[in-house]
Amino acid sequence: MLLRDFLPCHRPTTPPQGGLPIPGHDRHWSATWLRAGLLAGAMALTGAASQAQALDTRLLASGLSQPLFATSPLNDGRLFVVEKGGTIKVVQNGVTSNFLNIPVATASEQGLLGLAFDPGYADPASAGYRRFFVNYIEPTTLDTVIASYRTSDNASQANAASRLEVIRIDQPNGRTNHKAGWIGFKPGDANNLYIATGDGGSGNDPDNLAQNNGQLLGKMLRIDINRDDFTSPTINYGIPANNPLVGQAGARGEIYANGLRNPFRNSFDRLNGNLWIADVGQSSREEINFISASSPGGQNFGWRVREGSIATPGVGGPATPDMVGPILDYTRSFGFSVTGGYVVRDLSSPLYGQYVFGDFGSGRIFAIPGDGSDQTMASALELTSILNAGAAGPLGNISSFGEGFNGELYIVDFGGRVVQVVPEPATVLLWALGLGLLVQWSKVRPISRRLRKGWHGPHLKETRHAPSTETPGRSRS
Ligand SMILES: [Ca+2]
Ligand SMILES: [Ca+2]
After folding, report:
1. What is the CATH code of the structural domain delimited by 3-11+57-422?
2. pLDDT of residue 138
3. How close is the Cα of 229 to the center of ligand 1, in Å?
4. Ligand 2 centroid distance, CA of 107 (Å)
5. Of the bound ligands, which one is closest to the alpha carbon of residue 230?
6. Nearest alpha-carbon partner for 286 in 220, 210, 235, 357
7. How far, in Å, is the centroid of ligand 2 from the Cα of 258?
8. How far, in Å, is the centroid of ligand 1 from the Cα of 139?
9. Is the peptide bond before 306 cis (omega within 30 degrees of 0)?
10. How far is the CA of 168 from the centre of ligand 1 (A)?
11. How far is the CA of 196 from the centre of ligand 1 (A)?
12. What is the helix (H) or strand (E) element at residue 169, kind and residue range?
């Protein structure tokens, strides 16, 4: 698979494969390309200042039960939403229906936590045809299970009988938080599934699991889902030969990176394969970590010794030479529980090239340059006000971001909605007509100024939502 297959400009010329025809799909494309065309016209007329479009939000789905994630298969216009209680729903032309239900444990941060479609999902010649992967807490053992399923002949329904357990990760008894749960594929690599695990729970990682490379918790794992190195019928994966700890005595070969606490939401940049890991902090710092696409892995992100860029209060100790700090961390002034997002690769978005992330506890949303360089909150662009003023209405607890098949950016509201971040059409039209300089709306000015200044503009405000109650993925203890 070529990287360009992931580029938003690589427009599929046929309807999405592996799915039913999507009524309104062409209209969606038309709207997207109308926006892109208008943006191009605006850029021709006004140059870089055309980035001064405002943002809007559009309601994609509502009435969901504790949604935690949203994603689409490659070249598939449907959106699949993960609900904490074990249901995957498919949103198609504004209609939401059940795709799969899995029995899961749901206490505290347990639940159905991750979903990834095989890169070969729509390719009948691929071993991954119609295949997808889920990450959940199994209700009897309370262990983490990654299993694969396939869709039935009805592409809007999974075949529950197709379940194949891929890997099971033992969770400490009696600890219900820090299960992380994100899974994903790196663009251009159809064999290896990346799996984020938390430290297994409680405070201060009491068993020091994240720093123990003989354990799979507190890690980013990488396994080959197109191989089976194990005779057991319930262990079905291979260990990539180039994983960083392969051959190291006492270390698990599945490990790609370690020192993570609760990397609940992460993403690959679909343009270049860079990996963004948002690790939920304990009581002091929330952090964003970065692994370049060219890296062989092996990073130690510091937990439990380090919390963000500081020594973990109550644990402490200096960073060892192998530890890598975050590219950004933030204090309780900004939030309580980071929700990792995406580098925006929707060409029609003024946020193109920016990494957008949020905070579950404060409801605030920020953007930083998506090049992996070190950042500070002082130079981050806050999007909270402009997005909360969008057509979809104010956002609540942000449990995840999502990325559509053409790079569309979604926000998952734990209260039950998925909204899409879109350019404000009226603004795009004004710029296209060469009238952009007349646009002085209060919604437009802050973002345009900050964009032109490289976002070193007005500092962040201290507005915040009421702190949330206990949530999926999210307690600090
Ligand atoms: Ca096997
Ligand atoms: Ca860290």
Report:
1. 2.120.10.30
2. 98
3. 6
4. 26
5. 1
6. 357
7. 9
8. 22
9. no
10. 12
11. 21
12. strand 158-169
User: Please, are residues 7 and 270 in contact by the beta-carbon 8 Å criterion?
Assistant: yes
Which residue type does 390 have?
Answer: G
Residue 221 Cα to ligand 1 midpoint, Å, equals 18
- CB count within 10 Å of CB 97 equals 10
What integer pLDDT is reported at residue 398 of this predicted model? Answer: 98
* Ligand 1 centroid from CA 243, angstroms: 20
Residue from 308, 314, 288 nearest 401 by CA: 288
Blockwise average pLDDT, block size 10, the chain, 477 residues: 28 30 34 45 37 78 98 95 98 96 98 98 97 98 98 95 98 97 98 98 98 98 98 98 98 98 98 98 98 98 97 90 97 98 95 98 98 98 96 97 96 98 72 46 41 32 35 44
Ligand 2 mean position, distance from CA 282 (Å): 11
* Backbone dihedral angles phi then psi of residue 386, each to the nearest 5 degrees: -70, -35
How far does residue 375's CA lie from ligand 2's centre (Å)? 15
Ligand 2 centroid to 205 CA: how many Å? 13
Q: What are the distances in angstroms from CA 344 to CA 130, 218, 356, 457? A: 26, 27, 7, 21
Residue with tokens 């119609």: 130
Cα of 382 from ligand 2 centre, angstroms: 23
Which pLDDT belongs to residue 431?
A: 53
Distance 132 CA to ligand 1 centre (A): 18
Nearest CA-CA partner of 406 in 146, 22, 68, 82: 22
- For residue 277, the ligand closest to its alpha carbon is 2
Q: Which two tokens stand for residue 150?
A: 């396939």
Ligand at shortest distance from the CA of 319:
2
What's residue 42's pLDDT?
41
Measured in Å, residue 470 CA sits from the centre of ligand 2 at 22
Q: Could you tell me if 260 and 218 are in contact, meaning their C-beta atoms sit under 8 angstroms apart?
A: yes
Type of residue numbered 109:
E
Confidence (pLDDT) at 424? 82
For residue 385, CA distances in Å to 151, 363, 458 come to: 40, 10, 13
Q: What pLDDT does residue 430 have?
A: 56
In our burial notation (b when 16+ CB lie closer than 10 A, e otherwise), range 313-349 reads eebeeebeeebbbbbbbbeeebbbbbbbbbbbbbbbb
